[in-house]
Design brief:
CATH class of the largest domain: Alpha Beta
Number of domains: 2
Low-confidence stretches: none
Mean pLDDT: 97
Order of helices and strands: EEEHEEEEHEHEHEHEHEHEHHEHE
Distance between the termini: 17 Å
């Protein structure tokens, strides 16, 4: 039996609030050379989706205008030259857009097998955060066992992933969170200490519990005025890894402190990076992290699952910041 010709998608009808996410029908895309077509079981909801809806983060050239940067499902068609995947295999994949749909295209390099024993819908919560944490903390940040790391937004998708990976690879994770419920969850997940940033100065709190030493690495999703505070908290030869800018794109920096402590300030965004680079990250994850997923030593923390038609509710929850971990759309 062949595929249908059209599919249900969620479009952004205009920039605005969650109500601009509207159901529509589109032709099912056909995979080009080096691509697979996935019948989507689940799609992850991420902050960039919200930014795109608000008109603040347009899709890069060539990417789908449909939101959604990660999916999980079954391969139903392959493009020319594809030998890595076959029809019927179940995968999760990082994509450049198009996830809020019944079918989505993915480059073969950015797809990974569903870990044994894992729910396929929940696996839609793996790619974006695991790719982000691995590429920034382990690749760019050169993390090594025994090092300490402060994770801002510890209860976010990125934060809950980072806590687990740092724990499993021998690090010491600290986090900042917005309430006690999130703090307790992060500590149960493996965080050594959680600071409620609404009640305490995280710089002074972390310095106190580290006997004034600070931390080796900071993974930051906040930006803005956190920049100088982060720099003050890093040990000599420390690394600040910027992966999002929720508080703004500008901050003041004491360059003398940067120089005297030999600090490294770096950051990255996944979406515009070349397919080959994201393929290398996928290969590292399959080798280093997939065995941990299959042994249930790490897992995507899922807060809520909504049907595709209720994408607006998923965005409302995302913007409320009351969730812990990932938000998923269930499709089909």
């Amino acid at each position: 039996m062949g595929l249908p010709t059209t599919m249900t998608v969620i479009e952004i009808s205009e920039k605005g609030g969650p109500d601009v996410l509207q159901s529509s029908m589109r032709p099912i895309p056909k995979p080009s050379e080096g691509e697979i077509l996935i019948s989507v079981a689940g799609a992850g909801v991420n902050r960039p989706d919200v930014a795109q809806r608000l008109g603040l983060y347009p899709p890069p050239p060539g990417a789908s205008d449909i939101p959604g940067l990660e999916v999980a499902g079954e391969v139903v068609s392959v493009g020319d030259g594809v030998t890595q995947w076959e029809v019927g295999q179940k995968v999760c994949a990082l994509i450049s857009g198009g996830g809020y749909a019944e079918y989505a295209l993915a480059p073969v390099e950015q797809a990974l097998p569903i870990p044994n024993g894992m729910d396929i819908v929940k696996c839609a919560g793996i790619p974006e955060t695991f790719f982000t944490v691995w590429s920034n903390v382990f690749d760019r940040g050169c993390f090594s066992s025994g090092e300490s790391i402060l994770i801002h937004g510890g209860s976010s998708g990125i934060g809950t992933t980072a806590i687990q990976l740092i724990r499993e690879f021998g690090g010491i994770p600290y986090v900042t969170v917005g309430n006690d419920k999130k703090a307790n969850f992060c500590k149960e997940l493996g965080a050594v200490h959680a600071v409620n940033y609404k009640e305490k100065d995280f710089v002074e709190e972390i310095k106190t519990i580290t006997d004034g030493i600070g931390v080796d690495i900071i993974l930051d999703i906040v930006g803005g005025d956190y920049l100088d505070r982060n720099i003050r908290l890093l040990k000599p030869d420390g690394r600040l890894l910027q992966v999002s800018l929720m508080a703004g794109v500008k901050g003041e920096l004491n360059l003398a402190r940067l120089m005297s402590r030999r600090l490294t300030l770096t950051g990255s965004t996944l979406r515009p990076r070349p397919v080959a680079v994201k393929g290398e990250i996928a290969s590292s994850l399959k080798k280093e992290v997939w065995p941990l997923l299959e042994k249930d030593k790490v897992f995507p923390v899922i807060d809520s699952v909504f049907p595709l038609k209720e994408a607006y509710k998923a965005h409302e929850l995302m913007e409320s910041s009351t969730h812990i971990g990932k938000i998923i759309l269930s499709i089909g």
